[in-house]
Design goal:
alpha+beta; five-stranded mixed barrel; three-stranded antiparallel sheet; elongated
Length: about 270
């Protein structure tokens, strides 16, 4: 998409073809999930950068791209430049425009990823371990990689490359044009999310996890309740012969889990 799109501002073109502009914006929007308005603004900034490279940084230049038609207009000191005179995109100018456009797309992609994973903070994600380096585990989440520091791992657990792993999103932050995601397997929220996945009554809201405490790698204590008195909330979480709780214990590397009935009375 980048290679085809950046041909629009190559040094061999005098102006951007309106239909190609619209096609490029639509393609990047579809592939990268970036808002079209951000792409149009990026293109305008790219052309403006190239124009200033040609006419001078101090000149009053305005670039507008029609959102519906894709037509580009450039005004110099309030006077629109005719299309036949838009030969300012020389090799250096075109390269500058490309760099500006690439930077804007990377920033927009970063913001999109940040917003997506910020919404998943404290939620559980699945990934594949791609690297283990001095105790720090890198997990491929699909669109991006997350880091599982040693301090957020379950004590005594051995994680290996190519294994699938479930974690909660602990922290999301921007670093330049990248997004850094910190994962955790020791956080108490992981136990809550596992209960929601493994126990249908919890996922449906019939049983509520009212409180939980955890010593990662050793034990967790969960207090549960149900609005329906006909439901044995503790028995439903344990499952027949412990089948439901066993899958959670296995995921937590053998961590002991105690389930108690919540009581409003201290």
């Amino acid at each position: 998409v980048f290679r085809r799109s950046l041909l629009l501002i190559s040094p061999h073109r005098s102006a951007m073809n309106p239909s190609e502009v619209l096609r490029m914006v639509e393609a990047i929007h579809r592939v990268k999930h970036i808002d079209k308005e951000i792409l149009f603004e990026g293109l305008e900034l790219a052309v403006l950068s190239a124009a200033r490279k040609h006419y001078g940084e101090e000149e009053e230049i305005v670039v507008v791209i029609d959102r519906a038609e894709g037509q580009t207009s450039v005004s110099l000191r309030g006077v629109e430049i005719p299309p036949e005179e838009l030969e300012f995109l020389g090799r250096i100018s075109a390269q500058t425009a490309k760099q500006v456009m690439i930077q804007r797309i990377k920033e927009a992609e970063r913001d999109s990823l940040f917003d997506e994973y910020e919404e998943q903070r404290s939620q559980m994600v699945n990934g594949v371990i791609t690297r283990v380096d001095h105790g720090v585990v890198t997990v491929n989440l699909g669109k991006i990689e997350g880091l599982l520091p040693r301090s957020e791992q379950i004590p005594g657990e051995v994680l290996k490359v190519s294994e699938r792993v479930r974690c909660v999103v602990l922290e999301v932050r921007k670093q330049g044009v990248k997004v850094r995601i910190i994962l955790s397997r020791s956080h108490p929220e992981l136990v809550r999310r596992l209960f929601e996945v493994e126990i249908p009554e919890v996922a449906e809201g019939l049983i509520q996890v009212r409180s939980l405490a955890r010593e990662a790698g050793y034990r967790s204590k969960i207090a549960v309740s149900s609005f329906d008195n006909s439901i044995d909330c503790v028995g439903a979480c344990v499952g027949v012969r412990g089948s439901r709780i066993k899958s959670i214990v296995d995921e937590l590397a053998g961590e002991r889990i105690d389930i108690v009935r919540w009581n409003d009375s201290l």
